[in-house]
């Protein structure tokens, strides 16, 4: 229930008059509205009133022939010619509070977890905000413990760093995300499930994330059956919520699955608005929106940070796919997960040699860099000769480095294996690796 001050605030915010136009055309996912085009701009909001009296929120995505082109956040059922389209004043925003922790919401900021209404904060946060100014941002901070041994040791992340998780479907990225959300030392996790299968949402919340993970997280969900605007806005909302907690001087871990589905939603919007398709059918706005979205993560202008880990779907391991290539150029490192590693039973199925963190080796001590360097050399030597070793064509004694790699390979593989119920700290990871390799060399 709203208190007196909040009620007065909402009443004062009500417009004194309404501006509206009429629907002149409906085609596919687009609604054409006339009469108010001079009061609207790209990104503006309208409410189209269906013949049954139900308001459907829409966003302006373009103009054509002197008419505004709108896309709905809901279905177009019961919308026809002549339906009233009311102009919504102001920009879309949310009013988050600390009490949002443990809640699951949709792309419009509405609760979908059955736990009652969301508390309302005092400060509005724009859903589609810009990144902090580059000249005012802090540098990335100290190393962050993510609780996953292979990432902590070989791909150390700093506070405010942004990493991509590149994987095909069914390789274990959802389980990895749940481990990161549960075991990170960040104060808050904000998780965006963009275009997720509806069947898997509850499974992720109850089975993968669990009560411990949910308690310290805010989860934003837009399933694959929802309109493209909902899927795109869920990504924007994920960052808006992260920015609130960052401004509370907290370290936030922002997880989003996946950037690819955000790009697909933007592709549907752009093509419907008449944009020309370019690489693999993606219109130019996709590649313009990606940096605007992902640059919102990182260090802020104050104490708080947003550390980002974003999944990217790479079918068939194609790292040169347009979205994967664009995202890799924006982020501060990439984690590559491979199906063949998972098929031999090693999870998380991370290919260490194809993955990189751009803050390493700067965030490590010389001893840690020497230890990681030695492990990487051994893994690379084994990888180069792996086929010959498996076929039995390699003869022991032919190469001293390969012999050493064969000796250490079982222990390194066991080190990289971690169950989803296990947590490993930064110090534990380096200590275990040092014990395996007997120090650096």
Automatic annotation (TrEMBL):
The keyword Translocase applies. InterPro entries: AAA+_ATPase (IPR003593), ATPase_a/bsu_AS (IPR020003), ATPase_alpha/beta_chains (IPR050053), ATPase_F1/V1/A1_a/bsu_nucl-bd (IPR000194), ATPase_T3SS_FliI/YscN (IPR005714), FliI_clade3 (IPR022426), P-loop_NTPase (IPR027417), T3SS_ATPase_C (IPR040627). It holds the Pfam family ATP-synt_ab. One of its GO terms (molecular function) is protein-exporting ATPase activity. It catalyses: ATP + H2O + cellular proteinSide 1 = ADP + phosphate + cellular proteinSide 2. One of its GO terms (biological process) is protein secretion by the type III secretion system. It is found in: Cytoplasm. Keywords: ATP synthesis, ATP-binding, Bacterial flagellum biogenesis, Bacterial flagellum protein export, Cytoplasm, Hydrogen ion transport, Ion transport, Nucleotide-binding, Protein transport, Translocase, Transport. GO terms for cellular component: bacterial-type flagellum; cytoplasm; type III protein secretion system complex. The keyword Ubl conjugation does not apply. Its EC number is 7.1.2.2. Its main location: cytoplasm. CDD domains: ATP-synt_flagellum-secretory_path_III_C (cd18114), ATP-synt_flagellum-secretory_path_III_N (cd18117), ATPase_flagellum-secretory_path_III (cd01136). Belongs to the ATPase alpha/beta chains family. Probable catalytic subunit of a protein translocase for flagellum-specific export, or a proton translocase involved in local circuits at the flagellum. This is Flagellum-specific ATP synthase. It comes from Niveispirillum cyanobacteriorum.
């Amino acid at each position: 229930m709203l208190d007196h001050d909040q009620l007065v605030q909402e009443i004062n915010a009500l417009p004194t008059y309404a501006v509206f136009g009429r629907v002149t055309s409906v085609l596919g996912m687009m609604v054409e509205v006339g009469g108010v085009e001079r009061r609207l701009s790209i990104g503006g909001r309208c409410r189209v009133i269906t013949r049954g009296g139900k308001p459907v929120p829409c966003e302006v995505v373009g103009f054509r022939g002197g008419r505004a082109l709108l896309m709905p956040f809901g279905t177009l059922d019961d919308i026809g010619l002549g339906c009233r389209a009311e102009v919504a004043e102001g920009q879309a925003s949310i009013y988050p509070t600390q009490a949002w922790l443990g809640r699951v919401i949709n792309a419009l900021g509405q609760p979908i977890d059955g736990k009652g209404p969301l508390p309302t904060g005092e400060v509005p946060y724009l859903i589609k905000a810009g990144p902090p100014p580059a000249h005012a941002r802090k540098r990335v901070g100290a190393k962050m413990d993510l609780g996953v041994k292979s990432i902590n040791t070989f791909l150390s992340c700093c506070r405010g760093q942004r990493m991509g998780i590149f994987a095909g479907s069914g390789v274990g990225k959802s389980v990895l995300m749940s481990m990161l959300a549960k075991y990170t030392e960040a104060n808050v996790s904000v998780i965006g499930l963009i275009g997720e299968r509806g069947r898997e949402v509850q499974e992720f919340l109850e089975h993968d994330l669990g009560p411990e993970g949910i308690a310290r997280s805010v989860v934003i969900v837009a399933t694959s059956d929802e309109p493209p605007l909902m899927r795109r806005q869920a990504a924007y909302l994920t960052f808006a919520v992260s920015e609130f907690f960052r401004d509370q001087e907290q370290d936030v871990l922002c997880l989003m699955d996946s950037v690819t589905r955000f790009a697909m939603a933007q592709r549907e919007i752009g093509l419907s608005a008449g944009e020309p398709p370019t690489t693999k059918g993606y219109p130019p706005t996709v590649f313009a929106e990606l940096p605007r979205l992902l640059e919102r993560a990182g260090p802020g202008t104050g104490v708080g940070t947003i550390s980002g880990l974003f999944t990217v779907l790479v079918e068939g391991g194609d790292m040169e796919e347009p979205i994967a290539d664009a995202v890799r150029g924006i982020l501060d490192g990439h984690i590559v997960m491979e199906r063949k590693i998972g098929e031999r039973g090693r999870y998380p199925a991370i290919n260490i040699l194809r993955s990189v963190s751009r803050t390493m080796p700067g965030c490590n001590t010389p001893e840690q860099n020497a230890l990681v360097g030695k492990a990487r050399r051994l893994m690379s030597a084994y990888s180069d000769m792996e086929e010959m070793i498996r076929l039995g064509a390699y003869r022991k004694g032919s190469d001293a480095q390969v012999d050493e790699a064969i000796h250490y390979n079982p222990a390194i593989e066991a080190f990289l294996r971690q169950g989803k119920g296990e947590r490993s700290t930064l110090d534990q990871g380096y200590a275990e690796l040092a014990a395996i390799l007997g120090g650096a060399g």
